[in-house]
Amino acid sequence: MPSAVRVKICGVTKPEYALAAADAGADYIGLMFAESPRKISAGQAREIVLALKHAEGDRPKTVGVFVNRPPAEISAMAKEVGFDMAQLSGDEPEGELDSYTVPLIKVVHVDTSAPESIALLTLRRKLAFLTERAILPMLDAKVKGKYGGTGQTFDHSLAKSLAQEFDFLLAGGLSPDSIADVIAQVHPWGVDVSSGVETNGVKDVAKIRDFLRKAKT
Length: 217
Prior knowledge:
Elements: E1 6-9, H1 15-23, E2 28-32, H2 42-56, E3 61-66, H3 71-81, E4 85-88, E5 104-110, H4 116-132, E6 136-141, H5 156-163, E7 169-170, H6 179-186, E8 190-193, E9 198-199, E10 202-203, H7 205-216
Helix pairs in contact: 1-2
């Protein structure tokens, strides 16, 4: 029997949202340190981390989300806040990925403007590079000038092909209404959602629970 899909709830801004997500079975909680409507301070993030550890222990894992920040800065923030992993959502050079002191998730932005065969070769190379270094890839839509949390999706046929070879998190435009069909089509190792579990830009506990129930069924 295949294992349950892992779920990351990203852009969590308050302990109550994190605890609701954890209670519903979330595997990862994303804490935004990059520019975003969901950006929080180190103090707010530490409050969420401590609340989760007190209530849930080692699960879910907490993930600090950054865009184009130096490894030393992320390492210092990890010590201050206590998150378990860092997510790199920008254009961080491959040559720097060995410089981080925390486990990593690296976002790979999917460019669907290229022919599918070329896009697939490019993505396969990137995912192989990350997997060899025990870095968890995340596939997200490429949106000019944006680094995630856009709610934009992309052609999942590419992700479906890659899911046969690699473990990765699938992001981009997922919601409680779409998640069951996406999982059935792609069979990803895990999924990531942010705006899809919000109402008017604020995390919606009912949507978080609904998303997790459908993703984990």
